[in-house]
Amino acid sequence: MEKTLVLLHTVDGQVPQAGLETLGLAKSLGGEFDLAVLGAGAASAAQQISGGAAGVLAVEGDAFAVSRYATDAAACEALIRASGAPLILAPDTMRFHRALPGVAERLSAAIDTHVVSLNSEGAVERWYYRQRIEASLRRAQRPWILLVEPGSQPAAAPQPGAAPEILSVSCDTRTKIEGFSTPLAGEQTIRPDAPLLFVAGAGWTKKQKDGAVHVEEAANLILDFVRRTQCSLGSSKSLVDLSGEGQAVLPFLTHLHQVGQTGSSPRHKKGLATCCHGEEPHVVGWRFIQERRAINLDPNCGWVRGKADVVYVADAFEVMRELLKLI
Amino acid sequence: MPYQIIVCGGLAPDPLQTLEPVFDPARPSLKNELMLPAVFDPWAAHALYEAGHLARQHPGSVVRVVSLAPKAKLQQVMMTVAQKLPLELVALDGPGGGFTDAAAVAAALADAIAAMPDLDRSRLLLFGGWESATRGAGAVMQRVAERLGITEQFLAVDELSVEADGSLLVKERIEGGRHQISRCSSPPVMLAWATGNLPEPPNHPQTGMANMRVIMPALQKAKPVALEPAAEFLRTALPSVIRQTRVVKDVPAAEIAREIAEWIRQ
Amino acid sequence: MHEELTDQPQAQPLDADIVCTGFGPAVAGFLRTLTQGLQKPEMAGVESKAMPGLPPQIVCYERADDISFGVSGVVTRARAIRNSIPGLDPAEIPLAARVRDEQLIYLLDPWGVTRRPAWMRLADQLCRAFSGVLGVAHEGLALPWVPEFLHKQDGFIFSLGQFNQWVGQQVMMSGLAQIWPATPVASPLIEEDRVAGVRLAADGSEVRAALTVVGDGPVGAVGRQLDGHFGMPAGHRRDEWAVGMKMVIDLPESCTLEEGTVWHTIGFPEPEIFGFLYVHPGRIASAGIFVPSWMDSPVRTSYRYLQHFIQHPYLWRHLKGGRLRSWGAKSLLESGRRGEPFLAGHGYARIGECSGSTNVLTGSGVDEAWLTGTQLAEAVLELLREGKPFTRENLENTYVARRRASWLERESQTAERARNGFQWGLLPGFLGMALAGLTGGRLSLPRPREDRHPKKLADYYAGRLSRSEIERARRRAEAEARPLHDILMDLCGWPPVEYDGQLLVSHQDALLMGGKVQAPADFPDHVVFRSPQLCLQCEAHLCVEICSGEAIRISPENPAGVPAFDREKCVHCGACLWNCPVSNIEFCAAPGGLHSAEN
Prior knowledge:
The structure holds three protein chains of three kinds. By secondary structure, chain A is of the alpha/beta class. Chain A has helices at about 15-30, 40-50, 70-85, 95-105, 215-230, 235-245, 315-325, and strands at about 5-10, 35-40, 55-60, 85-90, 110-115, 115-120, 125-130, 135-140, 145-150, 165, 175-180, 195-200, 230-235, 270-275, 290-295, 310-315. In chain A, α3 crosses α4 and α5 runs parallel beside α7. Chain B is α/β, with parallel strands linked by helices. Chain B has six helices and 15 strands. Classes of the chains: A alpha/beta, B alpha/beta, C alpha/beta. Chains A and B meet through α3, α4, β5, β8 and β11 of A and α3, α4, β9, β10 and β11 of B.
């Protein structure tokens, strides 16, 4: 196995879970590896996990405390060059996903993202066509940067080791980070730490058995459920589109809620899909949900058949009314 | 300030279509790839709608789409896209599937942009989707920008506003359902868009007719691009997870609710 | 460069030279012939009148979201298509194949549930009794001979969607015509006795053109409005229709059917319903049925009949284990020449199915539609070359004259009275068809004074179901929001359809998996019930029963009896339009519908 660089960044001064997972993958390969950490408190964070690493590097300082392309790209370029390892493993966080493709360009390197496995023969697996096709591939080109999908690997236990060599990197940028915002939908978006994903399908806004639409009740049932269970709220594209088009339908839904082909594929332990009849393209949205249940009027629907563990053939309005009495 | 907004966007199979891979180690593809109806890549489409919106707010701005796709398919798709907003097109005639290499695609796009005779980097906003709906790598736009020397880059953008001093305020998606807000003092910048907040504009036949006067000639002179394979594929397959679905029916809603409540609590 | 960018450009009239409505085989043939002709040296001096200095401005507006979205079971001799495209190689067109083995199959009734007349039941008994001699197997008899008028042996199997896309790309790559999908045309611009262009549904834009080419199919909004305004030629009317519904199926590995196989079927799922099965390249088959207007059943559900059709033992042995790729439905105008409108007038011409070109005797429409398009294109090239205007006289002397002198006219005359017999009954129908077909139309049965119409439910089920059973079924259907025909067919002994989630799926799943039906949010409902009072008085609600997408239904909460319409399920087949016994349905142009390129 060729030499590997494990490239991580800190979050609040610590290497996050996704970083430990990437480290776990590197260790499982059994070859020699370097460790490089970027961000606020990088040196200390690196030392806490550098056990077993051949070389340890870090870039820290105010300019690198924030997630920003220009500075991140300069730091990552310096760290990769300093290590010289032909294979670079990094977690597929938003920060690295923004920075590393451009770094690959600077280094004439290859890059693959959303990697879910790597074996010692150098074959990686990843998804194509919005998680609808899986592929395994190999590359001869080096350096080769692999962004490892969070949640796809077991995390390494932190093992302290040598202190890092701190690289000095300078970089000009026209960009300043002003802060963060939480969308208006607040608690009702996709929250990675929630145990349950609730998916609202377009059926909530369609004519019900009585021939009328009941959007207000649908909105109340959904929001009430989400608040009480503190679950993530996802939605299908058609429902989000309707909201975006200014129609009076579930206005609290935005594209941030969208799961499926043109949305996210969040990782949760449990998922409950409601009124998603026929929205099969969005099945990919719960590809990484471990336990899946659905409330649907048609048991033969493509959304559930062979893809859910349980389908309740029932009126979601009635079930949710009852469910809210119990939780 | 009027901007030059360049939107990179390819084609993707209409999301409703059933996809099946056909394996070839050098050039995997989709079964009946040419037969599948295509749409403008949904992520790039969001970028395009944002570009149109921005151009309207800043008179004199130009929206230019750079697209690498099989020419005949691109022509077909542009008949819909062209009805959405005023735009120009730079067409590259080449393979458009998901298994093409991000680096090669980026090189072709960057070359086409660099060759634009009136390219003005001081007004340049380079737009694209944060990922394509085909390759799904999220690696092309950063590489295009690097090749054009653009080091101010943003990924998964949902909002862009131009401040009174001309600086650009950008909202990017980050983990945890939050946005990071950055201010960039001036172009050139690259923004790889998530969904933004704008709906798809309705079709506007007049806009389409006006656009076609420049789009048709652009398609006629689309430059052929060959993309060399850069990876060796070992396997392409549909995910094969089939679950034994338990169907619960003819059960009162209250009983179903009890079962679900119990499952949530576990 | 666009110096001025406004939010919503004002809807100024657009000027073109030729505007076409609908992109089907007729307009495809028209545009291909026209754009190729315009590239010839003798056309070099022809320039646009709308935009002097430029070549003629030719635009086509198609309602569907893509030029490849359409429906037809196409097995065609392709005489006109091959004439336009010498050396046509089916390998260039996805799903196209040469016809290799063509058979006419008589399907017996395996479950004793169809409404066969006595002579047909006797035929079944004879087939079973002499199965060894006749070669009856799997409840089907391959007839030894396909009548000359029906055969397609030298032809092709196409997917209409793929064929349209293939031609459309060639047309657009010529740079001489634009085809705009997702752009329904609301109406023609009629100014006194001439058509001056069209009005688009999206924003009300007027597109003014010297020539309006109307090829928007049997239920197209523009064609129907022209008929309303200009009337029909004496004695002509549109009173024979059918719903064609089909599935495109991935055949199971075990299937031994060869590419190019063509079966025409009669006898099942009801004697009036003809069926077909074609095998495309790549282990893909099209299977479908035609439910005609002269079938007297008031519960003429196409989808359930299609499910039983594919499960007939003769077909099911090949299809079982297959997977639904695509599904769709359309109306067919089967009046043929009797349904022919005025083919040309000042500033307009009619081509394709809306011009009555479909031949019901040969069961062929695509090639005929193509031919009408090419004939109009040749006429237009001639008029452009000579600098003559698109007046009625000039179009009649060029386009209509070409059409009248062609095989299309001869064959449509042969077919004109071929189906008269079906208005008397099934046996006279078959006899009349054979008579007309075999004598080249010289002999045919007369048409009865009264056409055959769907019966009242109680009359149709007399002897099978009592009035009270029917009434109970109706109440159950309303309470359970189920189609009435499903319950009635169950009561009559039709076996339940066991869904396998792959090929046998619920009607709703066929819409979603096979039809991928879409409706854009920013258009109003395109099916409108004009007078609620008339719906209230209607017993049959044929619009509900025939609806190919279950988009029209009686709502239990709406006791007024006005059906509810859900455009997100509508496939735009237009069957509601001609099934409404009191013509109470307005069927407007709208985008959306099927999103399948394989039909």
